[in-house]
Amino acid sequence: MEWGAREKLLKPGGDDGYLWHVLLVAAFGHLAPKPFRLIEPNGQRPPYLLGYAHATEEGLHRHVAEFCDPAIASALGVSSLAVKVMPDSFVAGRRLGFELRVRPVVRQTKDGDRNRKREIDVFLQQTRARPDAEKPSRVAVYTDWLAAHLAKGGAALDTMRIIWLRRSAITRRDRERELRVHGEKGGGPDACFGGALTVTDPIAFNALLARGVGRHRAFGFGMLLLKPLPR
């Protein structure tokens, strides 16, 4: 946070995902993990960062040794970096538990202008699209949204629950290098989903893990964390 303040990367009301993005790129360059997620265990233990990267531990440390600013290496605690290799693939039919911080939004034209687009909560978009109909269930809308994303990535959604839901604003620099808060006033949906999925296409699923789910994957969203299901 001290480094981010010095570099003028902190803005009140904005999410810190852009700060982490800049730090990771400054430390690891093109090897920087993406997607990534900051895990904050409610004071039970210190926050820590997880990320997927197309790099070896040796490659990451070499880039840091050759190019990284010492202040950045210190801020990230690069000396305590822990790395493990993910499986080459998960077999079709494998059921897995998951947790996912994601931004469930869709893009739509602004004021009818196709050259101007904005992001909107997919729940609000569907609610406004049928004002005279019964209000849809937020859980059902988010479940359909996630199921569609997973289906494109070689997985079928079995169950889903909302672990938490809040609003946050995306902060990033504009073309003039000024730090600005983007998105709707008050921020957009910032959700954590949990549940179970089944792998249907191992190659596509591996690509999904590496790419992430939804938008703003470079800023702390979209990292699909896997865990075993209880027997």
Word description of this protein:
The structure is a single chain. The protein is α+β, with helices and mostly antiparallel strands. It has 2 domains: 2-80, no CATH class; 95-227, Crispr-associated protein, domain 2 (Alpha-Beta Plaits, 2-Layer Sandwich), CATH 3.30.70. The strands form 4 sheets. A 4-stranded antiparallel sheet has the order 6-9-3-10. A two-stranded antiparallel ribbon has the order 1-2. The N and C termini lie far apart (42 Å). The chain is globular and about 60 Å long. It contains 7 helices and 10 strands.
In short:
This protein is 29% helix and 30% strand. It has helices spanning 2-6, 17-28, 57-67, 70-76, 122-129, 138-152, 202-211; strands spanning 36-39, 48-51, 95-102, 105-110, 113-121, 155-168, 170-173, 179-182, 188-199, 224-227.
Question: What Rg do the Cα atoms give?
Answer: 19 Å
Number of strands: 10
Classify the secondary structure makeup into a structural class.
alpha+beta
Biggest beta-sheet profile: 4 strands, antiparallel
- Please give the alpha-carbon distance between the first and last residues: 42 Å
How confident overall, as mean pLDDT? Answer: 88
Number of helices: 7
Uncertain parts? none
Q: Note the beta-strand portion.
A: 25-35%
CATH class of the largest domain: Alpha Beta
Q: State the share of residues found in helices, binned by percent.
A: 25-40%
Order of helices and strands: HHEEHHEEEHHEEEEHE
Give the name of the CATH architecture of the largest domain: 2-Layer Sandwich
Q: How many structurally independent domains? A: 2
> CATH topology of the largest domain, which one?
Alpha-Beta Plaits
Q: Name the overall outline.
A: globular
**Quick one: CATH superfamily of the largest domain?**
Crispr-associated protein, domain 2
Which strand order do you get reading across the main beta sheet? 6-9-3-10
